[in-house]
Specification:
The complex is a heterodimer.
Chain A lengths: L1 H23 L1 E6 L9 H16 L3 E6 L6 H12 L4 E4 L5 H10 L4 E5 L8 E6 L1 H15 L4 E6 L4 H17 L4 E6 L6 H13 L4 E4 L5 H9 L3 E4 L12 E7 L2 H13 L6 E4 L6 E4 L7 H15 L10 E2 L5 E3 L7 H5 L15
Helix pairs in contact in A: 2-9, 3-4, 5-6, 5-10, 7-8
Chain B lengths: L7 H27 L7 H19 L2 H25 L4 H19 L25 H5 L4 H19 L1 H11 L1 H6 L4 H27 L11 H11 L4 H23 L6 H19 L19
Helix pairs in contact in B: 1-6, 1-9, 1-10, 1-11, 2-3, 2-4, 2-9, 2-10, 3-4, 3-9, 6-7, 6-11, 11-12
The chains are: A alpha/beta, B mainly alpha.
């Protein structure tokens, strides 16, 4: 009996000690779906993490786990992070949604931030960027520049975010080029350079001279460079190392300001569960430099569209737009609401093929 | 659906490209396992080979030198495994898994600074007359040299295992190491050599991805092909030609399913995405109905005193 009492006192003291230590330094955890060196999606999130360290110096400690598979493993990693004393955990892939919610329920005192998802709780916020705004600009460039009128699109998983990007790119390519067609390949992975390169090659073999990718590595650009007369876009990161080759522009995700804000909110005790969805205007989505391979007039149009979107004057999903089956979606001048966009599970009119379930 | 957009010639040609890394890694592992050693570190050796080959060919400008470096890099990592399992008598499964983790980390470390760099392009076979033939020329005679090298290695391994004394000894060591030892064969030395060969092949398979198939360096870029190679050896019943068949099937179905998707075929994509795994396993399982068995000493530790 005495022994148990001692032990429990010791455990209690230990618990208080670690609690006190945690207060000195805010521990921020990051769970990544790919390696930090993927040159794309995870690379940008890690740049955000480094910005948090640079901003707060000694007051924060950051930890990250990379290449975490979407599934039960993710839950294990998050649980371990929470047990190790993380106060704020960013989970940066759509597939981490349910694991995040599950783990968050077990650790009510830990704050969670899930990227690109739609499930929230008292201690779970969501955040994402309006990548489709960048896709609109890329679609415009693609429609103007394609000569074969075939545009290849490498999708990762058929989730609303990816479908939104396909629709946005297609709408704007069709607008300037009524003959353009999209060929879509689903890679069923976020990160697998060999497979991404294979997909790009297949699309090029089937006549595509513009390649879009919604996967995380630079492999599709490498394949496009190899093929020669093909253009592509940087995805999630600038991918400027391909700027003298196929890459003509890019979508850059800038997470650093958001990560710094949220970390500060936890420090100040003002953190609340929120839903953030920012685009080009607030700077969460950046448009990488448009290279000289793009004709000057097309470049000017693309930049004008960027300004219009940033100023809120133009929305990439503005009617009249029909769904793939021909039914009306948006009337003339009508703008899509965020709810529909967040749950988008249909192609717009003109796209071929069906979306896998 | 528009099947006419699929170019059959290009499809067959890219099938061989997609299969080669898997083929190289698997044939190396086959030799290792026929010698009675289970090395689960294929993925780690592949990725190490991928970065070693990449770094050397970028720095020297010579892709062939890169392939040599990849083989050496893979073999060097395999040497660690050989030392652990053959000399220190460590558990092979644990050592192999450790090797994969170590290789992934080591390659990421070496790879700092190589992201976004473009490697020199790899020489392609070009035989005047043959390479220009319609159809056949594109499919058979205009690949990069590594595709032919892969085929050559399979043929050489098959010949060695089946018709040479060295092959017989290797198999004897794999089937019953005590008996081989009693006959005076150096079990450890033979196994270490087999492990090094396996490492070199895996390294070259990795370099094929980073130098030719993608071509670029990205962390973790082998993305599990090493594991598929391991499975392939088992399903191919430790037979070289079946490894070739399996690798081409896997590569082929992978490329075909992407082609079908791009052509808009109305088969649900989920089925297409799993088809490479399913078809390869199915075919090889049916073929292995002839009661081929694993090498009897596979995974067992050898010590002369026991």
């Amino acid at each position: 009996m005495k022994l148990i009492k001692y032990l429990s006192t010791a455990a209690l003291a230990l618990g208080m000690a670690t609690g006190a230590m945690a207060q000195d330094k805010l521990k921020v955890g990051f769970v990544y779906v790919g390696p930090v060196g993927d040159g794309g999606w995870t690379y940008e999130h890690d740049k955000g993490r480094q910005a948090v360290e640079a901003e707060f110096g000694d007051k924060v400690e950051t930890v990250f786990v990379e290449s975490v598979p979407e599934g039960p493993d993710a839950e294990r990693v998050m649980t371990q992070m929470a047990l190790d004393g993380a106060d704020l955990i960013f989970t940066t892939s759509f597939g981490f949604m349910d694991p995040t919610i599950n783990v968050a329920a077990k650790f009510p005192d830990v704050k969670f931030e899930h990227a690109t998802g739609y499930k929230r709780a008292d201690n779970v916020s969501t955040y994402s960027a309006r990548f489709y705004e960048g896709r609109a600009i890329q679609g415009h460039i693609a429609g103007k520049m394609t000569e074969s009128n075939i545009v290849g699109y490498i999708g990762s998983y058929p989730i609303p975010e990816v479908i939104r990007g396909i629709n946005s790119a297609f709408i704007h390519a069709r607008k300037v080029n009524p003959d353009v067609e999209f060929k879509i390949v689903w890679a069923y992975t976020w990160f697998d350079p060999a497979k991404e390169a294979d997909a790009a090659k297949v699309l090029i073999e089937q006549g595509a001279d513009v390649i879009f990718q919604h996967t995380d590595s630079t492999a599709p650009l490498a394949a496009a460079a190899e093929a020669g007369n093909v253009i592509g876009f940087g995805q999630a990161s600038d991918m400027s190392e391909y700027a003298d080759g196929p890459r003509v522009s890019s979508i850059i995700d800038d997470w650093a300001p958001y990560y710094i804000d949220r970390t500060r909110a936890v420090m100040d005790g003002t953190w609340e569960s929120t839903d953030t969805w920012d685009g080009i205007g607030p700077g969460m989505v950046g448009i990488g430099e448009i290279t000289d391979r793009v004709p000057a007039d097309v470049k000017a149009e693309a930049l004008a569209m960027k300004e219009a979107i940033a100023a809120g004057e133009y929305h990439p999903f503005t009617g009249p737009l029909n769904k793939q089956d021909g039914s009306a979606w948006l009337a003339e001048g009508e703008v899509a609401d965020d709810g529909t966009l967040l749950g988008m599970d249909f192609y717009v009119e003109g796209l071929e093929g069906t979306i896998p379930n | 659906m528009d099947l006419s957009s699929i170019n059959l010639v290009l499809l067959l040609a890219s099938l061989m490209v997609a299969a080669t890394p898997l083929l190289l890694a698997a044939i190396g592992e086959l030799v290792v396992e026929r010698a009675g050693v289970l090395n689960l570190g294929v993925e780690g050796m592949m990725i190490t080979g991928a970065i070693c080959g990449f770094a050397i060919s970028v720095n020297t400008g010579n892709p062939l030198l890169g392939v040599v470096a990849a083989a050496l890099g893979g073999a060097a990592l395999a040497l660690v495994f050989a030392a652990l399992t053959q000399l220190a008598l460590a558990n092979q499964v644990a050592s192999g898994l450790g090797l994969t983790l170590f290789g992934l980390g080591l390659s990421a470390l070496i790879g700092q600074g190589y992201q976004g760099v473009r490697p020199p392009s790899f020489p392609r076979l070009s035989i005047p007359g043959l390479s220009d033939l319609p159809v056949v020329g594109r499919i058979l005679f205009s690949h990069d040299l590594m595709v032919y090298f892969g085929l050559l290695v399979v043929a050489a391994v098959w010949f060695m295992l089946k018709y040479t004394r060295a092959g017989l000894i290797l198999r004897a060591v794999g089937e019953n190491h005590d008996a081989a030892h009693a006959l005076g064969y150096k079990v450890k030395r033979i196994r270490i050599m087999a492990i090094l060969f396996g490492g070199a092949c895996a390294g070259m398979g990795g370099a094929y991805i980073s130098l030719i198939r993608v071509p670029q360096w990205t962390e973790g870029m082998t993305a599990g092909i090493g594991w598929i190679a391991l499975a392939l050896v088992v399903f191919a019943s430790w037979k070289p030609w079946r490894v070739l068949l399996g690798a081409y099937l896997f590569g082929g179905v992978t490329v075909i399913q992407l082609n079908l998707q791009a052509a808009g075929v109305a088969i649900p994509v989920e089925y297409l995405a799993m088809s490479p795994y399913l078809i390869t396993i199915l075919v090889l399982v049916i073929m292995s109905a002839d009661k081929s068995k694993a090498p009897a000493s596979l995974g067992r530790i050898f010590h002369a005193s026991r």
